[in-house]
Design brief:
- The protein is built from three helices and no strands.
- The protein is an all-alpha fold.
- The protein has a domain at 42-112.
- Helix 2 runs antiparallel to helix 3.
- The termini are far apart.
């Protein structure tokens, strides 16, 4: 008697699935042109909006520093010292605003997905 391993069945052919990136793009474009407004764009682009706000805040903070130095060396040094605080407060305000938007969408989803 010989112990031979039993052959394992071969899986059936499965066509390649679309990547998560292509599904996200289709989902975004599909949501963007959804005239019935059944799917929302905001939760899909909120990260991108936050990055844009961070870049805008950085440019705004640099503009404040340049303007303060144009007004005088003392004002420029003071604003240069305070600029990280100005930037952090701006980031905090932007983050809170975007989180509030996401909370509204999550409330909507929770209310629509509860059992009747």
């Amino acid at each position: 008697m010989t112990d031979q391993p039993t052959p394992t069945p071969q899986p059936a052919y499965q066509p390649p699935q679309p990547s998560a990136t292509s599904q996200a793009i289709k989902g975004l474009l599909g949501s963007l042109f959804d005239l019935s407004f059944k799917s929302f764009v905001t939760p899909k682009v909120i990260k991108f909006v936050f990055i844009l706000q961070l870049i805008g805040l950085a440019i705004f903070t640099l503009a404040i520093i340049v303007t303060a130095f144009a007004a005088g060396a003392g004002a420029g040094i003071l604003v240069l010292i305070l600029s990280p605080l100005i930037y952090l407060i701006g980031v905090l305000v932007a983050r809170i605003q975007l989180e509030l938007i996401i909370v509204f969408f999550r409330i909507y989803e929770t209310l629509n997905n509860r059992p009747t």
